Amino acid sequence: MAKEKQPLKLKMDVITRWNSTYLMLKRMCDIQEAVKATLRMLRNPEWNALREMCSVMKPFEEVTEELSSKKTASVSKIIVIAQVMALIELGKYIEEPLISRKENPLVLWEARKKYPRLSTLAQKHLAVVATSVPSERVFSKAGQIISERRSRLKSSTAQKLIYFTKMKAGIG
């Protein structure tokens, strides 16, 4: 006697199960015709969106299942998965538009928390560019303040003049 197949039923999303949303959407797609016959409110664009969501979520479901399996060693896989996730993050970042040269990159990276690995690296390695231009400007201004004609200025007066000139010019 042939064993009868149980009819497939819709699945519910369970908040404590990572993959339950994927399984719920996949089941809906699997029994699309039966659902369409009952719920006529879903149109082709919605079904296309459901299928696309399933295709995006499937790799995550596979990875979680593999990491949850007792048969495999997960530590070695976590390293590979972390590297793949970093490559995906890098790929998404590369597709973003370039920022203007006038924007502060540290502020930008603080706002781009959607790239946690890259954001951490950027904040660690983006430093103020070492340049002597500001100090050269101050030295140049000091040369204009302390000249042959003003050689008898007290050092405290010269320091104050240099400081105020620097503040006025916005150098320091």
TrEMBL record:
<dbReference type="Pfam" id="PF05699">
    <property type="entry name" value="Dimer_Tnp_hAT"/>
</dbReference>
<dbReference type="GO" id="GO:0008270">
    <property type="term" value="F:zinc ion binding"/>
</dbReference>
<keyword id="KW-0479">Metal-binding</keyword>
<dbReference type="InterPro" id="IPR008906">
    <property type="entry name" value="HATC_C_dom"/>
</dbReference>
<feature type="domain" description="HAT C-terminal dimerisation">
    <location>
        <begin position="89"/>
        <end position="163"/>
    </location>
</feature>
<dbReference type="GO" id="GO:0005634">
    <property type="term" value="C:nucleus"/>
</dbReference>
<keyword id="KW-0539">Nucleus</keyword>
<dbReference type="InterPro" id="IPR052035">
    <property type="entry name" value="ZnF_BED_domain_contain"/>
</dbReference>
<dbReference type="InterPro" id="IPR012337">
    <property type="entry name" value="RNaseH-like_sf"/>
</dbReference>
<protein>
    <recommendedName>
        <fullName>HAT C-terminal dimerisation domain-containing protein</fullName>
    </recommendedName>
</protein>
<keyword id="KW-0862">Zinc</keyword>
<keyword id="KW-0863">Zinc-finger</keyword>
<dbReference type="GO" id="GO:0046983">
    <property type="term" value="F:protein dimerization activity"/>
</dbReference>
